[in-house]
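Sequence in, structure out.
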Amino acid sequence: MSFSSLPLEVLVQVLSYLTPTDIVKANRTCKSFYSASRVTKLWKTVCDKEHNVTVEQIGSSSFEDFYTKVLHHYGQTLGLWQMQIEHYGGLLSVKVVNGEIIATQLLPPIDPEVWMPFKRKDLFKISVDSEGKTEVNCLQGSGGPHKIEIMKGNSSNQFSVQCKQPEKHSKSKNREEKFASWIRDEVGIPPEHGVQGYQMELLKIKYLSIQQYESSCSFTCLQPINSLSNVPIQPGLFKGTYGGHGVEVIQLTYEGNRLHGTKVSGDPNVPAGKRSIIVHLDEPLVLNREQQRDLNSIKQLQNEGCSLPEGQEAPARQPFSIPFGIEDRGFVQLCEQKDIPTDFCRARYFGTGLIAMHGFRNSSRTDCHLVIFDEDVFAFLWMELGSLSVYSRADDFL
């Protein structure tokens, strides 16, 4: 029996076990395989198997065209990426939407609104035009889509982009207007309405730094994190408050009996990529309200040793209060938004936080407490800084 005598649906099934490259080779061997290779169902299977791309994402586009002209060349860019911007990092989501690959920068919300969704800025897209040609366009600026080059990195976990017409990025010829517009997006108010002093200096430094990466930037893949059992809080991405630096993104991961919070976005003091938080899961804490009265009370307990005795289980719920004199970086507001009680927590652990001067000079780790309220919310008490940062799970990048 020859292949030509087999039903078309059988040939399609046979081809579905091949790699896309081998499918193209097979369709040149005979008319039967050529006909089978043009069946939409086959390319639906390829798109799903290779890149988890579904009918809903493709829309009215041809699956074969989309795979051979877009996914085959640029499918490796799909996923979640850390932007390689000095000090500041950043988050990039690349997805298939309506038959196009769209790359969107996910910008943290205005401080301290960690409960709010990311602000979104489309950076580039890859699509097939009406003539069947692949288009790779930069979407920045008001000059309309224009050419951008996407280059593979040294591994599949890296890529970079280079805009070919960066002059189209500027929304205004006036530099002051452009800066004022950026300030409004960054902090929610015009610069003349209360942005001054140290905060203005930090914003100027950030603005000048990120402008250097507008037309050229590299990206490193953020590996997917699976759910775990028997952990105090599931790993993942969280938005957190960092005082004058605003809201930043960290990634929680586990390593043995340590919980790490690594910065995905950062600042000139503690840059992206550094471990902002290290939590000692073998040092659970239980404090009553009197012991949390003020920072001196907590420090005294710390010196005396306040961890639970080995083998003793922590209660499912314990008292919590913000010590007198501690700066609240959005905790009460977040609890109001999420309807979380402010006077109880689920768990508390000893840990350390990374602090440094500008330029990551004189970096050191300082005593802190991790306080968990539910699966999506935790706080970090920075004792040396006298502040309480709050973190909310970031799940709106999916």
